Amino acid sequence: LSQKKMFRKYNQRPTFRQMQLENVSVALEFLDRENIKLVSIDSKAIVDGNLKLILGLIWTLILHYSISMPMWDEEEEDEEAKQKTPKQRLLGWIQNKLPELPVTNFSRDWQSGKALGALVDSCAPGLCPDWDSWDEKKSMENAREAMKQADEWLGIPQVITPEEIIDPNVDEHSVMTYLSQFPKAKLKPGAPLRPKLNPKKARAYGPGIEPTGNVVKKKAVFTVETVSAGIGEVLVYVEDPQGHKEEATVTPNNDKNRTYSVFYIPKVAGRHKVTVLFAGVHIAKSPFEVDVAMAQGDASKVTAQGPGLEPTGNVANKTTYFDVYTAGAGAGVVEVVIADPRGKKDTVQCHIEDKGNNSYRCTYKPTQEGTHTIHIMFSGSQIPKSPYTITVGGACNPGVCYAKGRGLQAKGLRVKETAEFKVYTKGAGAGELKVTIKGPSEILRALA
């Protein structure tokens, strides 16, 4: 510890108690000449194994040789420094290394493990560069990571375990003993140093994350700037009021400020949560709360057409469709509500597919016969001609139809004589009856 020779000789092979006592006396005399104050301890107490006094002596040696005597980097040797206690001196050195953390003790301020990571990274920038993003609730993981890096690459042995240093009842002397090794630590060659990341220094700005002003179906854009945060990946997630989460489109701009252009298209109105992550950690102010309003499009410029809107011709349990065209109507949402013959609006569901080019395919399948009413809305208002009224017929089943009459007899008909027969369609559903008659030389027209 002292790097000095003893003042007088001692027995190198003490086999008798008297030799052991004499050797301890030589050591205690040396400590006294080093101006180390020893109270209530003698050679007999040490040889007899008085644990309390021995531990006190060890702590005295740690204070003197590991904390009081060495001159540390960034420490000035002046009268004020000499008057500080060893505890004040070590704490002052740590505070100088960690100006961003309020470290004032050797117990509770170390329980989250973040201060350990900060100290390791301060002594060797790049060993624990992401310590400030560590979760304080994961104190054990934090302490293990920091102490592992200190052990492997700074040569600081774990004289205290991670479990002990995060314990609220940890012994301060043990923590001081461990931390007193840091001022003299030197980084070993080949250490896996990483660039320092500071996600909280990334910032986002633009209309897409403003509390108001964004509307449904309209692209919401904003920018993420990462020049002060380091090198990392930007990810953006948007969660709508129903809890559906989608990843936004992020494009690097490759400029000097390392900015990223981001956009998303909200599908529903209401409060959205926009989460912006840099290197897997929230940036400053993330997540952002964005209230999306209904788009204010012009419903009068919207048109619709297709077989599903025809007054007749649609049958029950058969899928039909129509198209809605919104070109020139501005931003807005297409909505379709179908009322069945009893006026209920929840029995027939309509699937709306965006076909691009301001065209939407609306598909539905009526399950009942009778009059249906179709309401088509854009941006909350009915479009021209809406609501549409259609009559749904029964499903067509030609197999139950049958025909009979003299006009279908194989024999007995004469030229120029009227040939009659009847077609019975009861139970066959809705459909159009067509009759084709082919004679020996031409197709004849049937008169219904």
Automatic annotation (TrEMBL):
<dbReference type="InterPro" id="IPR013783">
    <property type="entry name" value="Ig-like_fold"/>
</dbReference>
<dbReference type="InterPro" id="IPR014756">
    <property type="entry name" value="Ig_E-set"/>
</dbReference>
<dbReference type="GO" id="GO:0007399">
    <property type="term" value="P:nervous system development"/>
</dbReference>
<feature type="domain" description="Calponin-homology (CH)">
    <location>
        <begin position="1"/>
        <end position="66"/>
    </location>
</feature>
<protein>
    <submittedName>
        <fullName>Filamin-A-like</fullName>
    </submittedName>
</protein>
<dbReference type="InterPro" id="IPR044801">
    <property type="entry name" value="Filamin"/>
</dbReference>
<dbReference type="InterPro" id="IPR001298">
    <property type="entry name" value="Filamin/ABP280_rpt"/>
</dbReference>
<feature type="repeat" description="Filamin">
    <location>
        <begin position="294"/>
        <end position="392"/>
    </location>
</feature>
<feature type="repeat" description="Filamin">
    <location>
        <begin position="393"/>
        <end position="448"/>
    </location>
</feature>
<dbReference type="InterPro" id="IPR036872">
    <property type="entry name" value="CH_dom_sf"/>
</dbReference>
<dbReference type="GO" id="GO:0030036">
    <property type="term" value="P:actin cytoskeleton organization"/>
</dbReference>
<feature type="domain" description="Calponin-homology (CH)">
    <location>
        <begin position="84"/>
        <end position="187"/>
    </location>
</feature>
<dbReference type="GO" id="GO:0051015">
    <property type="term" value="F:actin filament binding"/>
</dbReference>
<dbReference type="InterPro" id="IPR001715">
    <property type="entry name" value="CH_dom"/>
</dbReference>
<keyword id="KW-0009">Actin-binding</keyword>
<dbReference type="InterPro" id="IPR017868">
    <property type="entry name" value="Filamin/ABP280_repeat-like"/>
</dbReference>
<feature type="repeat" description="Filamin">
    <location>
        <begin position="194"/>
        <end position="292"/>
    </location>
</feature>
<dbReference type="InterPro" id="IPR001589">
    <property type="entry name" value="Actinin_actin-bd_CS"/>
</dbReference>
<dbReference type="Pfam" id="PF00630">
    <property type="entry name" value="Filamin"/>
</dbReference>
<dbReference type="Pfam" id="PF00307">
    <property type="entry name" value="CH"/>
</dbReference>
<comment type="similarity">
    <text>Belongs to the filamin family.</text>
</comment>
<keyword id="KW-0677">Repeat</keyword>
